[in-house]
Amino acid sequence: MRRTVTLGEGRTPLVESSREPRLYFKLESANPSGSYKDRFVAGELQRVLDGGGRACVATSSGNTGSALAAACARCDVACTIVVNEAAPEGKLRQMQAHGARVIRVPGFTVQAAVTAQVLELLEDLSRGQGIAMVVSAYRYCPVGMSRVEAIATEILELLPAANVFVPVGGGGLFSAVSRGAGASAARVFAVQPEGCNTVVSAWREGRADIDPVASTTRISGLAVPFDIDASLAVRQLRQRNDRALTVTDAEVFDAQRYMLAAEGIYCEPAAAAALAGARKARAQRWIGPEDDVVCLVTGHGFKDPDSIAVAASAHPDRKVDAGALRDLLMAEVR
Ligand SMILES: Cc1ncc(COP(=O)(O)O)c(C=O)c1O
Fold it and tell me: What angle do CA 24, 64, 236 make, to 5 degrees?
């Protein structure tokens, strides 16, 4: 019997902002492992299983690995994941808890040369040993990526002329959303950290080629310093006449704190890049007050406890004996 790979991913909520009219959040963080990568993994692992594969090797900044580890546990597929040394704790623990073998490689996803070396090695290994290589990019895994395109169609069913803001690392997610938007009236905006602006700089300068950069961004998931799907993203941008912009890490962390404190949305920093981009696009009048704006909340707050700890430190807890509790509560509860 054919086994269907699914954990119930997709069809994620689209919620309105509690503060701003016409601002919406697409909660990809509500996917089973906490990021949009569950959509990708469901499609890609299905392809692997249908082809008789029983093992895979993957690269990940964290979320692909978490999603893949969960699906592999369920489907009894052996899974080895190569990650960057600084992958956030929440994502690493997820992979390990599901039983994936995790290998940390310093410089991977940060330095272009190390990243290229690792990818080449895995490609060789995958070809030589017949083990599936899982990377969330069209360049390597177009079948899985095609499942991500549904993010756009789900939004457009409800908001046919939406302005969709997409956090960009390697460029695969943007390419998928842009493809999903097709010939619709939607506009799709690529938002990249200033410290890793592969797509935005090529788009601004009219280049087709992607220049590798020395990434300085601290936003996990968005530090992809050379062309994986970046050139595809630039082609998509030109084809649909869409737009791209950069945001600083500080603007991303500020947007994350706003989402936590004012929208009740528990997200990782990469996910908040979309709102940081939407704010900038508004300030530049790329979008007006009558436009519907959708920010993709691509990953959950549990993924990156360090960034959450910074936001939490503004609201320290207190410890009191039960006898002193009444006075404290009377002073505070209104
Ligand atoms: C939470 C999150 N948002 C956005 C992205 C960017 O996706 P892409 O690398 O396809 O541009 C990633 C990639 O890992 C991610 O984990």
Answer: 60
